[in-house]
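Hello Y.,

Per our agreement to keep a running log of every chain we model this quarter, I'm adding this entry. I've kept the format consistent with earlier entries: sequence first, then predicted structure.
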Amino acid sequence: MAATMLVADLLQERQKELELSLLAGAKGVRRQITVSEINRPGLAISGYLDYFPSERVQIMGLGEHTYLKTLEPSRRLDVLQKAFSYKNLPCVVVTRGIKPHPEVLRAAERVTLPVLRSGLTTAHLIGELTVFLEEKLAPTTTIHGVLMNVYGLGVLLVGDSGIGKSECALELIKRGHMLVADDVVEIKHRLGGMLHGTGAELIRHHMELRGLGIIDVQKIFGVSSVLDRTRIELVIRLEEWRQTVEYDRLGLSDQTTSILGVRVPEIVMPVRPGRNLAVLVEVATLNQRLKYRGQFTAKDFSKKLIAMMAKGPAEKPSENRKKAKTREKEK
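Predicted structure for the entry above:
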C-alpha cells in the first residue's frame, strides 16, 4: 500500500537534521505528503502552471528568491497566490536560511499552506529530504515468512505455518548465514524496482521455535548472525510433498511471484522427511547467483542435449570395432 505522511510529521522527525522552522501556514501542517519527488517551482512563479507537479514538496532556493525580487509586489503576490492555490500542494520550503518576501508568507496564509525555512543549501536539502521521503513513502506490505541473507543474496522463505521455515532458517544460521526477519517480514518497494525487507521492530532478531519458545538469535549466535535489512532477490516456497504434483526436475522454467508489483524469482521446494532443506536453499541461492551473472545451467545443458540429438544416434563401440577391422583387411 502507498504510504503518506503529514507536514507536521516531517517537522517533528527531521526538524533538527534539516534545520527546519515554520514561518507561515501553521493551520495547514496536517496537509499530506504523498510522493517522494521534490520540485523547484521556478516556472510556476513565473506564471506558467501547465504540468505543474503540485503534489510535490516545493523547494524555493536563491534562484526563486532572486527572481521574485525582480517583480513588483502586486505581481509577486498574484503569481504566488496562483501557484499556492492547489489543494494537494503539501508545503513550501525556503532554503539557505533566506528571509522570504512578505508576499510569500501572505499568499501562504490565505490558503493555510505551510511555509518552512531550512538552513541547509538547496542541493543538500533536496538530497536529504528525498532520501527521507523515499524511506517513509515507499509502498509497503507485510508477509508471513522468514527472510535470510544467504551468500549475500536476500532469500525469502514462505509457506504454510508449521512447514519448517524457522527450523530451516536456524540451520542456515548455524551454517554462517544471517537472519533478517522471522515470522513477520516488512517489505518496501524502493526506486528502481527493488524490494527491501526488514523485521518488525519489536521482534527483530528473534525467532519462535516450537518447543523452545522465543530465542534471541543475536545473543546466542553473535552479532554476525543477524542483519537489519536486505534486498529480496529470491523467494523459496516450502510446501508439503504431494504425490499428485509434478515438481520441476529440470529447472528450465523461470517461475516468478509478484510482491508490490515487482516480479521476483520463485522456487517451489517440496518438503518431506530426509530432505536437508538448508543445503537445498544454499544450492538454490548459488544457482540463482549464476543466473544473475548470465549463466543458466539448465538451459545450457538443454542446448547441448539438443545439439547432440541433432547429430543423430551415436554408433555403438562394437560397430566401430567391426568397421576398423574391415578397413584393416582392405589394406
